[in-house]
Amino acid sequence: MDSTDFGESIRQVGGYSAASEYLDPETSNNNDEMDSRIEGGNTRLVNALARAIGLSSFYTSHRVTAVVEEKAKITVSAVDTRADEFEAKSAGAVTPREFFADACICTVPARVLLDIDFSPPLRPDKIAAARKLQYARIMKSVILFDQRFWLRRKNSRFSCFTDGVSDFIFDSTLLQKDMQGRGILCSYAIGDKADDLAACGDNSLQKSIQADLAAIFPDQRTNPIAIYRYAWQEDRYTQGAYALYRPGQWFALREPLSKPHGKVHFAGEHIADEQGFMDGAAQSGEDAASEVLH
Questions:
Q1: Could you give the CA distance from residue 255 to residue 246 in angstroms, rounded to a whole number?
Q2: Is 176 in a helix, a strand, or coil?
Q3: H/E stretch holding 183
Q4: In three state form, how does the secondary structure of 8-27 look?
Q5: What are the residue ranges of helices labelled H in the chain?
Q6: Which of 8, 112, 205, 215 lies 20 to 30 angstroms, CA to CA, from 168?
Q7: CB 121 within 8 A of CB 165
Q8: CA 128 – CA 79 distance, rounded (Å)
Q9: How far is CA 74 from CA 31, 98, 112, 237, 285, in A?
């Protein structure tokens, strides 16, 4: 059950990481880390930050290819992924766009560092740490139903850990209203099960989850209206949901990953004290900004 907090089996998690998750009085609570969420979706925080900075400053369709420091100046090269796909089809070269700055804060996940050309090159210990740090395999499948058959009575709640392929199933529409009685269940699969589900076609995925639900609710009609899936381990820009520190890795890998590289500073959940959470990512960003200012 606690493995879902790490994205892989808790048997593979380092003791320091597990202790900070459950025993730290500043970050732990009595609700098994079921933290508050933002009404309307956590994306609202990201959008609010973007509006505060100015949307014209964002290039969300661009992929960074190189970071060069020369004469105390930083040049970041990036290609437009839309042009990247078009040019790839026509076998043409993609011309990168260059951005110039006095300093750079790099927030990409550790594994993606290896896809960017740094000049001068990254230190060997930072490269080795980026290669060793694993990212959690998580597959989320959200399933829309025309009625919430899992609610036995008014104001009841539902979640279930299974030994089936669905792994952990929970009500994504808990306490939400104005859906004409409809509801959404989420299958939250981790580790090997996440890979198994990611390999399924849509029909096979739906049948597998339906079979688990039918075993839990044998007297209910469990045919969904729609299903949407996402396997974080297949995401090109993260290669997993969030970092997973194995035994002996917290101090060995975190330090080289967090050290500045010239005028390039680093931030992200993978080097935060609240590792794995957006709270930690935001705090690491503030820390990196302070490094630049000083």
A1: 15
A2: coil
A3: strand 183-190
A4: CCHHHCCHHHHHHHHCCCCC
A5: 15-22, 43-53, 81-89, 110-113, 124-132, 191-198, 202-216, 250-258, 278-293
A6: 112
A7: no
A8: 26
A9: 45, 10, 19, 22, 18
Q: Kindly give, in sequence order, each residue whose CB lies less than 8 Å from that of residue 184, ignoring residues fewer than 6 positions away.
A: 142, 143, 144, 145, 171, 172, 173
Q: CA 221, CA 9: separation in Å to the nearest integer?
A: 32
Closest CA to 117 of 76, 70, 72: 76
Domains and CATH numbers, the chain: 64-134+243-293 (3.50.50.60), 137-234 (3.90.660.10)
- Contact between residue 268 and residue 242 where contact means Cβ atoms under 8 Å apart: no
Q: Are 79 and 97 in contact (CB under 8 A)?
A: yes
Q: Which amino acid is located at 115 in the chain?
A: D
CB 105 within 8 Å of CB 122: no
Distances (CA, A) of 120 to 59, 65, 198, 268: 25, 14, 38, 22
Check whether the bond before 109 is cis (ω within 30° of 0): no
Say which residue the tokens 């994205």 belong to.
7
Distance CA 75, CA 17 (A): 36
pLDDT in tens, the chain (294 residues): 888 888 899 898 988 888 877 777 666 666 555 566 788 888 898 899 899 999 999 998 899 999 999 998 999 999 998 865 555 555 556 789 999 999 999 999 999 999 999 999 999 999 999 999 999 999 999 999 999 999 887 778 899 998 888 899 999 888 888 778 899 999 999 999 999 999 988 888 888 888 999 999 988 887 888 999 999 999 999 999 999 999 999 999 999 999 999 999 999 999 998 888 888 899 999 999 999 999
